[in-house]
Amino acid sequence: MDFEVMAEGLKFPEGPVAFPDGSVVLVELRRGTLTRCWGAGRTEVIAELGGGPNGAALGPDGAIWVTNNGGMSALPGPDGRWLPPDYDGGRIERVELATGKFERVFTHCGGRPLKGPNDLVFDRTGGFWFTDFGKMRARDRDFSSLHYVGADRDGVLMVHDRVLSYNGVGLSPDETVAYTADTFSARVWAYDLDGPGQARPREGASGPARFLSGLPTNSRYDSLAVTEAGNVCVATLDTGGITTVTPAGETSFIPFPDPSVTNICFGGPDRRTAFITLSATGRLIRVRNWPEPGLALNFSQY
Predict the structure, then answer these.
(1) How far apart are CA 67 and CA 219, in angstroms?
(2) What sign does the CA torsion over 215, 137, 32, 151 have?
(3) What is the per-residue pLDDT across 117-167, written as a single tens digit (0 to 9) for each?
(4) Which residues pair with 18 in a beta bridge?
(5) Which residues of the chain are modeled with pLDDT < 70?
(6) What is the domain class of 15-222 according to CATH?
(7) In this predicted structure, what is the pLDDT of residue 137?
(8) Residue 248: how many other CB atoms lie within 10 Å
(9) How much is the pTM?
(10) Angstrom distance (rounded) from CA 170 to CA 168
(11) % of the chain at pLDDT higher than 70
(12) How many CB atoms lie within 10 A of CB 214?
C-alpha cells in the first residue's frame, strides 16, 4: 500500500494522535519525549518526559495523557547485554499541549506499583482503560494487567490481572466491548462490558476475557485502533504490518516495510487517513484512502 513519510529519525515512535491541522502528536519511547510531527520532516518536542512513554491519547480536558513504562532498562540491548539501569517506575502522566508542562497522575493500583503502562483509550464518560505490560528480566517477567480509571480520577481499578503480555487497548463503537492485544501470543481478547470499568464475568471461565482471534504466523501484536465499522486494526510485529480483525474473528493483513509496526490512528476529514508508526526505522507514515474509516475517538478534534 502506498504511503508518505511524515517524519523520520524518530527514536521508536508510538502512540500517534492525529489533529485537524494535519499534525500528529506521538511519543518517542527511546528518547523519552512527547513530540509533534508536522509533516515534511518537521518535528518539535512538546515535553521531555523521561522514562519510556509508550502510549498517548487526548483527554476530555484537552491534555494528552501518556502511559509511561518508566524506561526500557529491563530489556536486552542489541548486543545481548542488559541496558544500564534507568527505570524510574511506571506511571500515567498528563501533559499540557500548549506549555509542555506535565505531571505524574498515577503510579500505583491500590498498594501495587504500576510496572510498565503501555496503551490507553478514553470512553465517552471521560474515564480511560489502560494496559500494564509489566517488565521483563533475564529469567522472569511480571504478569500483565488491564486497568480502568474513572472520570472522577479516584484511583486505578484492576479489571484483569495475571495475563500474559497485554499491549494495545480499544473500545467497540458502542463501548460494550473492550479489546486488548496480547503481544507474545498474538491474540486479540474481548471483554464484554456492563458499564465503565465493568467487565462481565464469564461463567465457567477463569477470567472475563473472551478469545477473539489469534495469528498462526511467527508474529507478535502491539497497539491497536478500532474502525467505524467496529473492526480492530492491530499493529503487527516481526511480519510487519496491520492485521485487521472483525468482531467475528476473521483477519486480513496489510504489510509495511518495517518489522516493528507498532501503532495506528486515523484522521483526515473522513477519518480514512491512517497514521502508522514504523518504529524499527524511526518513521511516521501517512496512508491515504485506508480501506475503511477509523472510529471517531472520544474527545478527539474530528
Answers:
(1) 24
(2) positive
(3) 999 999 999 999 999 999 987 788 899 999 999 999 999 999 999 999 999
(4) 24
(5) 73-85, 302
(6) mainly beta
(7) 78
(8) 8
(9) 0.95
(10) 7
(11) 95
(12) 15
Written in H, E and C, the secondary structure of the chain is CCCEEEECCCCCEEEEEECCCCCEEEEECCCCEEEEEEECCEEEEEEECCCCEEEEEECCCCCEEEEECCCCCCCECCCCCECCCCCCCCEEEEECCCCCCEEEEECEECCEECCCEEEEEECCCCCEEEEECCCECCCCECCEEEEEECCCCCCEEEEEEEECCEEEEEECCCCCEEEEEECCCCEEEEEEEEECCEECCCCCCCCCCEEEEECCCCCEEEEEEEECCCCEEEEEECCCEEEEECCCCCEEEEECCCCEEEEEEEECCCCCEEEEEECCCCEEEEECCCCCCECCCCCCCC
pLDDT at residue 73 in the model: 58
Q: Is 244 in contact with 255 (CB distance < 8 Å)?
A: no
Counting Cα atoms < 13 Å in the Cβ hemisphere of 273 gives: 20
Single-letter amino acid, residue 137: R
C-alpha grid cell for residue 182? 496480547
Task: Look up residue 61 and give its three cell numbers.
Answer: 480536558
pLDDT of 79: 58
Dihedral sign (CA 298, 134, 11, 4): negative
pLDDT of residue 85: 61
The predicted pLDDT at position 257 comes to 97
What per-residue confidence (pLDDT) applies to 120? 98
pLDDT score, position 77: 57
C-alpha cell at 193: 462490558
Whether the CB-CB separation of 169 and 127 falls below 8 Å is answered with: no
Q: For residues 59 and 231, what is the distance between their CA atoms, to the nearest angstrom? A: 23
Quick check: 129 and 178 in contact, CB under 8 A? yes
First to last CA, the chain: 24
